[in-house]
Amino acid sequence: MGFGNFSKTVEGMLLGFVGGVIGGVLAYLMFNGIETSTMGSNFAQLAFSFRVTPALLVEGAIFSLLMGLLGGLLPAIPRSTHAYRLKLAATLSYSASGLCL
Predict the structure, then answer these.
(1) pTM over 0.70
(2) How far is CA 75 from CA 44, 81, 82, 95, in A?
(3) Contacts of 2 (CB under 8 A, 6+ apart)
(4) Domain regions of the chain by residue span
């Protein structure tokens, strides 16, 4: 998808945000309104009521954007990793030969 260093960062943020939205929707559908309780060893009962609020969804979206930013920064920095300098065909043939773990 990406064309340059900036677009790699934007792509990472976009993918992180989409994943965060999907996760937020799934969390809302699966856990909102669930009530459960536990029974301790001394017969003490502790009850939980799960609520997925809009504030939690916004916090999750912000967190997913930040994780996407961090995930997109390293590939965007030129020559920052050893893998960036390797030739693709040589790397694939080396790992296919069984020499790479």
Answers:
(1) no
(2) 51, 8, 11, 21
(3) 8, 11
(4) 5-96
